[in-house]
Amino acid sequence: MPGDEVPEPYVLSENAPIARKWTSPLYEVATLGPLSATEQEKERHRIHSLLLFALMRRYFNGNRNGSRGTYPWREKQREDDGRYAGGDYLGHNIGALAVDGTGEVIDFDFNHNQLFNSSAEHAEARLIRRVFSLTQLYDDWQTRKPSDPPRTRGYSTLLSDVTVYTSLESCAQCSGVMALGQVGQVVYLQRDPGTYHIGNIMWNLTAREEGGGAKAQIKATAPRPIPGSEIGFSYFDELNELYREYYDAVRTKPFHEWKGKKDKTSALTAFLCTDEALGVFERARKEFLGLAKGKLTYPKYKPKKPGAKTNQEVLALAVQFHDYASDVGRRGTPHDL
Ligand SMILES: [Zn+2]
After folding, report:
1. Separation in Å, CA 143 to CA 111, 152, 215
2. pLDDT in tens, 226-285
3. Are the C-beta atoms of 45 and 187 separated by less than 8 Å?
4. Is the pLDDT of residue 309 over 70?
5. Residue 121 Cα, ligand 1 centroid: separation in angstroms?
6. N or C: which end of the chain has fewer CB within 10 A?
7. H/E stretch holding 319
8. Which residues have a Cβ under 8 Å from the Cβ of 315 and sit 6 or more positions away?
9. E strands, 152-216, where?
10. What are the CA-CA distances from residue 262 to residues 74, 158, 175, 252, 308 (Å)?
11. Cα atoms in the 13 Å half-sphere on the side-chain side of 242
């Protein structure tokens, strides 16, 4: 039957990843295989994931609908005058952190939708733009002269060693910006059902094997998404479950009540204002600060890369960054002002 014919993909080579996946079932295109990471690497990822959640706690703001009225899910955030803690709401409680190939934190950013009255001021996209402008400068500003020959490393590869940690699974915009930036991998610490697995799909449709035998490497244009569950980050499952509970219960226990109106939104960004979400960030912050006093399992591990830091050094730098960002960071606006 003519209706059953599969149209040809528009590609120049039948070896293109999308051509090879053309007739695969959708679930296969949207699902990732298991991550091949060692326990040492996972510990390193957890240090930066905990750092990000500590910053989420530091800059938490639940006033999605303003500081007045009643928020049945925010009893613990109520202050003595009846208003809710947090002040002006600048954007949703979603943040991202960029870390370079040696293990040093480059910078962080937050969602700023409200501040800019926009639905596209997402943490990862803002962060990538910021990091690009930093890398153009910090690479060689002290040693480079205008008469020097052009850089050998083009701007499109500046971020290929960068890992982005994001508190929430990335949307199509942010996955796109990270792909354009050639970001190597993105670790996300909560699922977002609204992203329809776009990060996985982009990875699967751009990943190809290069080289042969033992040296074969998977290279992709899009960053490799790594869910928190793959690095042993326990708050990942917990947040997913708490959001599911919120989603089911908000019909009978509204998010917000004001002047007789009940806001029963099941939006994930509303859940991220609740005492439950705050509690997770708070516990992660305590775990992060405890980590600094306790012992790592793999303190001496470091990747085989010039200048790479050990896990112990990475932790010390993460603690320093936490102190700096808690003090002078300004929730995604230019820092240190
Ligand atoms: Zn986004």
Report:
1. 35, 15, 35
2. 999 999 999 999 999 999 999 999 999 999 999 999 999 999 999 999 999 999 999 999
3. yes
4. yes
5. 8
6. N
7. helix 311-327
8. 47, 291, 292, 296
9. 163-166, 185-188, 208-210
10. 15, 48, 34, 10, 53
11. 22
Can you state the angle between helices 311-327 and 275-293, rounded to 10 degrees?
130
Beta bridge partner(s), residue 98: 107, 164
Q: Which helix (H) or strand (E) holds 90?
A: none
- State pLDDT tens for residues 15-36: 899 999 999 999 999 999 888 8
**Phi (first) and psi of residue 210, to 5 degrees:** -120, 145
Distance (angstroms) between ligand 1 centre and the Cα of 132 equals 17
144 CA to middle of ligand 1, Å?
35
Region 310-314: what's the mean pLDDT?
A: 97
CATH of region 37-79+87-138+154-327, choose from 3.40.140.10, 3.40.640.10, 3.40.50.1370, 3.90.1170.50: 3.40.140.10
Asked if residue 299 lies in contact with residue 312, where contact means CB atoms within 8 angstroms, the answer is yes
Q: Cβ of 263: how many Cβ atoms within 10 Å? A: 16
The answer on pLDDT for 208 being more than 90 is no
What are the tokens at 314?
């990475």
Surface-to-core class of residue 214, CB atoms within 10 Å of its CB (0-12 exposed, 13-18 middle, 19+ buried): exposed
Is 265 in contact with 255 (CB distance < 8 Å)? yes
How sure is the predictor about 337, in pLDDT bands with cuts at 50, 70 and 90? Answer: very low
- How many angstroms separate the alpha carbon of residue 155 from the centre of ligand 1? 22
Does 191 score more than 90 pLDDT?
yes
CA of residue 170 to ligand 1 center, whole Å? 5
Tell me the CA–centroid distance for residue 104 and ligand 1, in Å: 24
Residues 120-168: tens digit of each pLDDT? 889 999 999 888 777 665 554 455 566 765 555 566 567 888 999 999 9
- Overall residue count recorded for the chain in this entry: 337
